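The freezer alarm interrupted the setup, so I double-checked each line after restarting. Inputs confirmed:
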Amino acid sequence: MVFFLIFIAIIVIVVLFFVSIYNSLIGLRNRVKNAWSQIDVQLKRRHDLIPNLLETVKGYMKHEREIMENITKYRSQAMDANTVGDKAAAEGMLSGALGQLRVQVENYPDLKANQNFLALQEELTSTENKISFARQAYNDQVLFFNNKIQMFPSNIVAGMFSFKEEEFFEIEDQTEKAVPKVSFN
Amino acid sequence: MMWELIQANKRKSIFIFIGMGLLLILIGFTFGSFYSPENGGFFGIFLALILWGILSMVSYFAGSKILLAVSGAKEVTQEVHPQLYNVVEEMRIAANLPHQPKIYIIADAAPNAFATGIKPENSAIAVTAGLLGTLNRDELQGVVAHEMSHILNRDILVMTFAGMMLGAITLMAEVFARSLWFGGGSRYKSKSSDRGGQAQLIIMILAIALAILGPIMAQLLYFAISRKREYLADASAVRLTRYPDGLASALEKISGTNLDLKTANKVTAPMYIINPLKKKGMQISNLSSTHPPISERIKILRSMSQGVNYANYQNAFNSVKGKTSGLIPQSGLTDSSVIGLRTSDLSQTSFETDKQVKREVGDLMMKLNDFVFINCTCGVKIKVPPDYKNNSITCPKCGRIHNISK
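Predicted 3D structure, all chains:
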């Protein structure tokens, strides 16, 4: 009788242990999803800002047609991308093209004095920052989630309920380099 | 990772909360026994417990509102300062917090900032108009990240509670000290028994010692914890922004001014990013100063060139301090994620003169005080005070008439 009770107790403890691991895995996966939606919101915001920016810039920068066409092209590519990897690649190219535009702006003093442009520039800078901070937060969450899935004993629960490792949002080195760093000191 | 740091901080919060409560009970007991040796002690404890309860309730439900009101902070919308709003949102995203803190501006020319609240969902960040005028985007980001770290690490909770408790203990000691001057002594003269008199004397000495030492002890505890928190918030801020130089140069600029923040006092001082009471001699003793020396904080930040995770900050801290100390909990140090430094993304560096800074600060303070700004087509900016009665105003330069929409 006593052994039976102990046996029952052990089973209950093990089940509770598994349940708590399962719940923490669900919690972590939701955090990953939430972090991803943060990136998504900001990417959409950038896509919305771009037509405004091009409209403002168009009148001033008549000689930079190529850059502007690239921006439009990469924007629509990024909007059509489905997987995390594709999206990262297209957004990387878009960041590069926007960076080129930013360098060229220096040659147009009238544009730099335009209040509307300055306000847009602040919004764009902020959106780009938000994208990179959201990416950092997302990757932190993914790392934590993937670690949990690989480590004992949570890997057993993860295997039982087929939790899959999440993909990192990496912007490739090549495109990262394409963003020129500007300083005016 | 992050939330192990938060756990460590929550434990400390409970410790300080209980410690302050015990001190309050001890003081209550001693003062009570002093006035009535038979059962005054228990009455004192009873009163102290009630006071503790009321204070905790007030701190929990209205603490941050009281602190914001005392500091003269005003809640603002995005339109008043879009950049500040953007920077706060950037840091919220970096910290992966679901709720945006409320944004307050204090109409004061001294650059400073603080965060308050009980939990991230109802937190607030307050900055002065002077801060917005003096700092560039990267520096502002550093300061906001520091405040966001206070929210993220739940420092705001312990600071709100500890501030309230400290206020109460100081108040009780003051009331007791005053009652001693005004006829408190007459009570124990009436006792004639020799043994009772002796016990009375011991209790009295204890009471006086506590009256003097209690607030000092409470303050030391409060300060020691708040100083460590500043380093920790710097470490987290760097991890969030990935740009230690931003916060470092912000601290340089803030400490470079010698303006005093008029609305700050002894209880609210530890909340600010740097000590707002510079002239009042709080830096005399290292033990009782609320903030670590700014030069040291800047040196640590400037020497972070390897990376921006917690271990990197601890290394920089050790090399600047010349000793190894467990600033960051072990759980934070095992955070192995390698995060590289970011370069400045300032596409436009503003070469602002002192005059421009002063004008910007002045404009912001006017906006806070409900001035209406009208840009005339001739280039003049008309600032209409809130008590201006007419519906239209004439431009002093070109004579155009503008309607005022209120």
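Quick read of the result. The longest helix of chain B spans residues 194-241.
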